[in-house]
Here is the input.
Amino acid sequence: MTADLSQLVKAYDVRGVVPDQWDETLAELFGAAFVQVTGADAIVTGHDMRPSSPGLSRAFARGAAARGVDVTEIGLCSTDQLYYASGAFDLAGAMFTASHNPARYNGIKMCRVGAAPVGQDTGLTEIRELVESWLDAGTETATAPPAAAPTAPAQTPGTITQRDTLEDYAAHLRGLVDLTSIRPLKVVVDAGNGMGGHTVPTVFAGLPLTLVPMYFELDGTFPNHEANPLDPANIVDLQKRVREEGADLGIAFDGDADRCFVVDERGEPVSPSAITALVAARELAKHGGKGTVIHNLITSWSVPEVVREHGGTPVRTRVGHSFIKAEMAASGAIFGGEHSAHYYFQDFWNADTGMLAALHVLAALGGQEGTLSDLVAQYDRYAGSGEINSTVDDQGARLAAIRTAYEGREGITLDDLDGLTVTAADWWFNVRPSNTEPLLRLNAEARDEQTMQRIRDEALTIIRA
Here is the structure.
């Protein structure tokens, strides 16, 4: 296998097809490079249910241990369970998952001590360069680096031990949200054959919930549907089951269970922006009506509005977990949310956990007598397009065309925080280029559906010209 790391190492993680783009040999080198770049003297690793995950995870552990680093393997886990272990044990960590990608993919999400992210600006570039230098020198294992390697293998290898953290993880989450006094709720959960099937039964144990499980069998081939609830096609089964069961709500998790998506009692999807606003209001109340809340620039206008109404300070940032986590740390924010259904908590080492967001929704719904649709109506105030992807030949040229079409118009502002955002009094839209594909991503919102559709179609006409 000839590895092309430019295709494998992304902005936030390592991700590619196994074994075509990477394999256990390369995973071992990543393990050695990870500990060398981070300076960690002990790490924790975990993996999802994909067929290739246990072997890749163990190879990474071998590479780290070869450098004298002790490795704690927590085995099958969700990504936020790995973040829990990193935070609770004060260890750098590596999670083996490709999240919602198809079965042939796998990847590594890495973090420093306390679940601090490792992205292209915080160590991932250096890890990639180190692995590339070893590959160029003909190195095939972490135990036999070239003479030019900055750090040679340790004379005494580190240990590799196993530890079960599921009960501790569940207890930590339940300690952050009080669900003991809520009214009984019936909840359908679609785990998509992903790691939610592993974590939900333990986290929900003992709570006043009637759980209706869907696709809880761990199966990295995803036999029922892709584990990507952001695609409406993948929540159809959940929507139907919620209606059939007369449930109070439905929850869907992605493959590594770090994102949660919610449908109401009618089976209608609840906007992740509405969930962000709801959880923000609860976190602000918990902190005495004060605190900073981070939201990315494609969340609804309702998010900063709700934050201000509840005494908080909203801070707008770029899309992407490394930007959110960095801003969380810099500002001391109590909570952060993205429209992709990533939710970040100060009480969870600034890391994202869909499970904690789900517990907040259950607590909010169970703490009053109304339906979920009634509850979230106060947080879902505008008409949104959702994310629309368009394949283009020249991302820069299409963005320039949008700028030309709108700049100088009265009452319209443009900003370049992430892609191009065009804002008027009653609407806004953002167009961002994909980092990995020839795509432009459009998100639009307006005060009414008719205006949103007009602005959406006007922008798409320019993008797809």
Residues 146-150 have pLDDT under 50 and may be disordered.
